[in-house]
Amino acid sequence: MGKQLMWICLTIDEGNREEIVSLCRKHMEGLDLSGRFLDFPLHVSLKRSFYSDAFEKVKKDLCGYMGSVPSFEVKEVSLQRVGDMLWIRVCDEELMRIHERIDRLLKERYDIEIDMFDRNYLPHITLFRDEKKDRLDAMYERLQKEWKDRTIRFASFYIGSKMNDNEFFKLSGESGLIPYNEDERRGQIMKIIETTVGSKRNTQIPVTIVEAQEKKKLLLCIHGFKANRTEDGRFLTVAKKLAEKGICSIMMGFPGCDVSKEDFINYTLKNCISDIDACYTYMKENYDFSSDDVGMIGYSMGGRLTSLYIADHPEISCIGLWAAAVYDGFGMEDGFLGVSSKELFRQCEEKGYVDFHNGFDDTDIRLAKELIEDMASCKPSVGLSNYTGCAIVVHGDEDVTVPYATAETAYELLSKARERKLCTVHEADHGFGQWNERPELSKQLTDDTIAFFERCFVC
């Protein structure tokens, strides 16, 4: 019969579904949204749709593998606008483990590829998709007002196939596989925790902690401008691998980014550094590390923050700079993401903020006057030129957001580093393949970083 398209998902409790669907339909009035996804069972995808010529065998294996998992609740949920989608972002350690188990089973038994979706897994429930931006924005605003303190209850695993006319088969406890010993081993080596840390502004910073069993050292992961705290899972890829060597990692969501409940107007370099301080302190107070050495990885604006932070923290002995915006001030282009410094300061003087369209996620936001002033005055070159630890600089040679020459400058500034390395990801833009379905580019990014940190930081 040939290969058939298959999928695996986890549905939410029926009462929970009705509550969410009713809320959505109430607020759809007058917005001309199709709501077609509300007609299907609300679910989290656990594996990118894949092809297999062994539906019954895959089904049997998955039934034995997943059927014994009980229903569970997740409280760390939030609404998010992503591109042409409105979804419920679900943050849960158990869900991440379930996804990893499915990935490994299908890869090892059926050689089904672990693609970018799986490596950078961000569990979510789609509410609306392929809708006009202004309508989605309006829907998001309406739902957000009633979304506080919600819980998602997951009920059943299902597997579906085109071969079976899109029918879903519930995964119950049929005879099948005993969970891998590898799963038990991984559970002993690491633990993924989704929680919050209090900021100095009396707000809550959303964080992901990858907790190693043997807690040797700490790694701080710093995301970029308007990005999510795991950088679409790539920080997690590095953190999980290093956890096997005793490295604990923390990823934090800055004001107005990720699932932060703060307005983006609070996104300033000073506030970001303050939040790094708060998370750093939290980890030191709650974990007994055997070494004072600390590592740090920063992506884009996160690289800028990393370069500023190391100037005051000599204990940071290994850094990774991913497409890092480490030029002093506004750099040679004398602007920020396509807007000239002259225009930025003009708006600051007239309004006290800057109206800005963020092309990364197609949203309109306001930039704080303090952010513009921070950007203009800060000098990442100071931290880099005095840094004596180990540093890896990874940059795409087709990056037009932060040109490749910035990486070359950073490498030159790191002349005092104990060890330095410049890795060029050929054909990569600022997203390292994330924006144009080139997963091998992100894989090179994470592989190079892991290898460097294992050699220079783990020991």
Walk me through the structure.
The protein folds into two domains: 4-179, Cyclic Phosphodiesterase, Chain: A (Alpha-Beta Complex), CATH 3.90.1140; 190-328 and 378-456, Rossmann fold, CATH 3.40.50.1820. The chain has helices spanning 14-27, 55-66, 93-110, 116-119, 133-144, 181-189, 234-243, 269-286, 301-309, 341-351, 369-377, 380-385, 404-413, 439-456; strands spanning 4-12, 43-52, 72-74, 77-82, 85-90, 124-129, 152-161, 168-170, 190-198, 204-212, 217-222, 247-252, 294-299, 316-322, 335-336, 339-340, 353-358, 363-368, 390-396, 419-425. By secondary structure, it is an alpha/beta fold. 41% of the residues are buried. The protein is globular. It contains 14 helices and 20 strands. The protein has an eight-stranded mixed β-sheet with strand order 9-10-12-11-13-14-19-20, with helices on both faces. α9 (301-309) links the parallel β13 and β14 (316-322). The longest helix has 18 residues, at 93-110. The model is unreliable at 164-188 (pLDDT under 50).
Terminal Cα span = 53 Å
CATH class of the largest domain: Alpha Beta
Count the E strands. Answer: 20
Biggest β-sheet: strands ordered side by side in the sheet: 9-10-12-11-13-14-19-20
Q: Note the total helix count.
A: 14
Name of the CATH architecture of the largest domain: 3-Layer(aba) Sandwich
